[in-house]
Amino acid sequence: xxxKTIQAIFDDDDMLLKAVKGLxxxxxxxxxxxxxxxxxxLEKAAGLKNTRIAITSFIYGVIGFxxxxxxxxxxxxxxxxxxxxxxxxxxxxxxxxxxxxIMFELTVFxxxxxMVITFYMRSKLWPFKxxxxxxxxxxxxxxxxxxxxxxxxxKLEEFxxxxxxxxxxxxx
Amino acid sequence: xxxxEAPIREPLIYGDKKYHDISVDVAAPVEGKANKKWWIAFTxxxxxxxxxxxxxxxxxxxxxxxxxxxxxxxxAWDITNFVWWVGxxxxxxxxxxxxxxxxxxxRMGINRSAEAMTIFAVFxxxxxxxxxxxxxxxxxxxxxxxxxxxxxWVNFNSPLLWDVFAISTYLSVSLVFxxxxxxxxxxxxxxxxxxxxxxxxxxxxSFGWSGRLKDWQRFEEVSLVLAGLATPLVLSVxxxxxxxxxxxxxxxxxxxxxxxxxxxxxxxxxxxxxxxLLLIMRKVSNLESxxxxxxxxxxxKVILLxxxxxxxxxxxxxxxxxxxxxxxxxxxxLSVGAATGPYWWAFWALITCNFIFPQTLWxxxxxxxxxxxxxISIIINIGMWFERFDIIVIDLSRGHLPSSWTMFSPxxxxxxxxxxxxxxxxxxxxxxxxxxxxxxxAELKSILKSSGDNYKKLRGENYE
Lengths: 172, 464
Description:
The complex is a heterodimer of chains A (172) and B (464). With 172 residues, chain A is of the alpha+beta class. Chain A has five helices and six strands, in the order E-H-E-H-H-E-E-H-E-H-E. Chain A has helices spanning 13-25, 42-45, 53-79, 92-122, 153-162, and strands at residues 4-10, 29-34, 83-84, 87-88, 143-149, 167-170. In chain A, helix 3 (53-79) packs antiparallel against helix 4 (92-122). The chains are: A alpha+beta (172), B mainly alpha (464). At the A-B interface, helix 1, strand 2, helix 3 and helix 4 of A face helix 1, helix 5, helix 7 and helix 15 of B.
């Protein structure tokens, strides 16, 4: 018997949350949930792991900071040291206080932009990307759950209906 | 589930709204046709913008000698306008980032427009230092890139260069923050669109946003981290702008309180500009249910606080200038000399607009009054322009040698460029108001059940 996927549409976030909790308890396999806005507590109910995107941001920030240190040291101290306003650039530690603002700016620059690029890549968001929500109403006021099952489809449909699903259909 | 919010908190969304109503209301200005008033406003803004372009072209073609600058006052309207616009830009990030960190739900009705305003204001700000270079085609010299001069690198000891990095980081991060928040709202417009052209454009702009659970999880995390990054960033930007002055040795500029005082001033002026725009927008775009008296009052409270910080800074500068007994301190922009000297009108414009008038906001009747809020916001915009004018022009007009004392008078080109940037700003904002989802509808839907008037009433009736 092959896997069948059921799409159930809800029109209320509380009903959806309850249904997802029920499905999880009944050990159904929730494939995907499409919602028009972030529903509080839904990712926990659906058993999603925490995202690691904040960690990547930290790493990018460290890279940005190191890049700033390297760049300013190379340009001001190594490559062409100059005596500007009676304040010569002979060593990194003497010049360092003047570098602090740009160290900070580049840390933020790298952390922010590379994190957002990572987010777009991981979530497959870019220009000309086709939207994949199965029902256009899921960006407005409807919520769609995709559940797959190997067993009795009718039983699942019954279950969803009892949890308050407004429409139920088999995914083509 | 737990949508409970204390009944004493005033609702943030009025009217009997359901999720779908929010979509309809946000999409209405985009899907409808522009009315006559919009076209009139747009035409005026466009003419001002073109006038400014003409003046900029004249400046670049002839040289910055066409401005009113002289040997002593070598920064004037240009840098005044630059600091004014950058300062205005600060409110958007403050609303979207700082208020997100503080979990202030009222930000959701106004953050989109405030951020748009930020980006458009920073565009205007960027124009001034670049044209002030005179030879704009050499503007890339401010970038640390290998060049044919040896390579002669930029000077990382200079606060002016810090500014280049600060402003460009600020602009680009704000832009990305804004755009990421826009994706779900563009997706909403895409899925509603009837006309194929609109569907195509919003499909393109929405980057194929589908609203998957994992996407939302990442979206929220990214917003939170960006807010955490943008908060110190926004403080750093105006700190660095203030260092353009504070690290010099000009009396009146060489002041250690400049960074916090500039940041407070920036938020002060930025909120005033948000207030100006939103008070008009809520009427014109029929957003009275979403931008309510609570929003206006909260912004007025922030204005009152930051205005208070700025006023304390004025008093401190004034007192220390007088108490030092230094003759040089007697003609800085906050001194008896300035109050009674040839620039007395600029001094008193600053005190009246930024110190006296905002005190009226202590009264609840006045700070919840739309008309008065609008008037006050305009007054503060003017006052904050004068603050920068005073800092730059009054301080520069009195050198260490009385023989170099001079006055500054702007030429028509100075005025035209300033008017041009105001025109450009409104051109961008008016276009934005007709083509973008002006309210972060996805976020707003997530607080509808906790802060919507109808839901609050329903809870009140059921749990009495």
